[in-house]
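Translate structure to sequence.
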């Protein structure tokens, strides 16, 4: 499996950055044409679409709140933890990609300083699921960046050879990403453009991470069994963190993430002991 991932990554070309950059330019031009490059106007042009999406998706609060947790790196990566054993190259790309996403996300949130929906609209009109977020860091959506960063790494790592399966795989990844990303609107945490822009940035972060891991082999030690104790310790810490979340929020997705991580912990201990 790891060989397949390496081969898939080696085929990627820089032109893959053209589409996301083009989409960002289109969005900027659209916002400029609507005089929406300031926070107030940016919010106003999305008001109707925000309430439409929020009112419809907000009808399924439990589902939305569980799905939106995939935007938390701890939760999503727990489901992928087993790949450290079978496809460490994916994890090399993931680590680089997530570091890039942090470097892109944090400054952008500070620069744009767009207030969250709960800080702008009347609470009686907005469906808020979970803890109300009312800061000035709505743009871009960090959860959407994380989801699309991880999905982009998986998209190219596991890309099928046959064209028809490639199309189905790409559609599956994009659909999954959009469903999870728009849960942020459903729970009242973000505006629609926040998650769209976040998704594009996540795609760019994922690609950059792949190219970085391909050129600079800074994470090659992941494939070395002598470093498995590091992952064992991290998995134990993450399991404790998940147990704490289960105690405080008791979401079903936390149970699934915990089971996935526990299985990975067992497997990696078994492989390390048998070295």
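Result:
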């Amino acid at each position: 499996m790891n060989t397949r991932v390496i081969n898939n990554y080696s085929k990627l070309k820089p032109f893959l950055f053209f589409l996301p950059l083009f989409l960002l330019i289109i969005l900027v031009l659209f916002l400029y044409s609507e005089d929406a490059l300031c926070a107030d106007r940016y919010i106003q042009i999305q008001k109707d679409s925000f309430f439409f999406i929020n009112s419809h998706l907000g009808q399924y609060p439990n589902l939305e709140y569980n799905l939106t947790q995939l935007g938390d790196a701890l939760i999503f990566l727990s489901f992928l933890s087993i790949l450290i054993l079978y496809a460490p190259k994916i994890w090399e790309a993931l680590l680089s990609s997530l570091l890039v996403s942090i470097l892109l996300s944090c400054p952008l949130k500070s620069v744009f300083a767009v207030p969250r929906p709960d800080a702008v609209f009347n609470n009686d009109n907005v469906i808020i699921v979970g803890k109300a977020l009312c800061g000035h860091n709505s743009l871009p959506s960090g959860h959407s960046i994380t989801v699309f960063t991880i999905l982009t790494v998986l998209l190219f790592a596991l890309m099928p050879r046959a064209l028809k399966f490639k199309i189905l795989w790409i559609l599956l990844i994009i659909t999954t990403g959009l469903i999870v990303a728009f849960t942020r609107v459903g729970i009242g945490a973000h505006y629609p453009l926040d998650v769209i822009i976040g998704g594009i940035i996540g795609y760019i972060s994922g690609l950059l991470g792949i190219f970085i891991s391909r050129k600079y082999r800074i994470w090659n030690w992941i494939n070395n069994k002598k470093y498995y104790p590091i992952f064992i310790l991290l998995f134990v810490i993450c399991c404790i963190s998940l147990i704490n979340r289960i105690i405080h929020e008791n979401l079903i997705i936390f149970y699934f993430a915990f089971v996935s991580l526990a299985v990975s912990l067992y497997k990696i201990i078994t492989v390390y002991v048998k070295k």
